[in-house]
Amino acid sequence: MSHLLGYALVSTAERNADLQTDELTAAGCWRVWTDHASGVLDRRPQLDELLGQLRPGDTLVVWRLDRLGRSLRHLIDVVTALDDRGVGFRSLRESIDTTAPGGRLVFHLFGALAQVLCYLDTPRRLPPPLGAGRLIQWAPAERSRDARHQGQGRRHRSAGAAA
Q1: Distance CA 103, CA 2 (A)
Q2: Fewest Cβ atoms nearer than 10 Å: which of 12, 70, 98, 113?
Q3: What is the pLDDT of residue 104?
Q4: Residue bearing the bigger pLDDT, 144 or 18
Q5: CA–CA separation, 76 vs 69, rounded Å?
Q6: What pLDDT score does 54 carry?
Q7: Average pLDDT over the chain, rounded to whole?
Q8: Exactly one of 11, 38, 71, 144 is catalytic; which is it?
Q9: Of 23, 12, 132, 118, which is closest to residue 74 (Cα–Cα)?
Q10: Domains of the chain, with CATH numbers?
């Protein structure tokens, strides 16, 4: 028999999880696990316990996507791991349900978007622009052209200016 199992996350102990737990219960969740911690923390003991309880055919339900994943990449990794185990995923606010074809499509699009963002964040290996970290050599004719400008090339180089 499959179950809907809910997960709520509130950022600090002072905040109240009632809004999330009420909506998860109204959505039919059999049980709701709640963590009181920052979403960026690696350790969320209630989530770890919930992930251990999920069985094939179950569905993990969250109030919003950001309650489960610390980042888009992390969210996709978690949902992919759930899918590999035969567990569905549902987000109430975004109306995403990976047990339906439309929800699976949305997650494939999220995965593609995450790959593009990762590619765009990769630093490019281009040669430095002219003058960046390189000294500009003055042509001898320019240095000797005018007595007023004698030694100006040396002053420019020592001051860090580029021509």
Answers
A1: 19
A2: 12
A3: 87
A4: 18
A5: 8
A6: 96
A7: 79
A8: 11
A9: 118
A10: 4-121 (3.40.50.1390), 132-163 (no CATH)
- Percent helix / strand / coil, the chain, rounded to 5: 45, 15, 40
> Tens of pLDDT along 83-130?
999 999 999 998 899 999 988 898 888 778 877 877 776 665 555 555
Judged by DSSP in three states, 62 sits in: strand
> Structure tokens of 133?
């970290």
Cα gap 135→154, rounded to integer Å: 10
Mean pLDDT confidence for 69-95: 89
Helix (H) or strand (E) holding 20, with range, is: helix 18-26
Q: Is 158 a catalytic residue?
A: no
75 φ, ψ (degrees, to nearest 5): -60, -45
> Buried (b) or exposed (e) across 97-135, using 16+ Cβ within 10 A?
bbeeeebbebbeebbeebeeeeeeeeeeeeeeeeeeeee
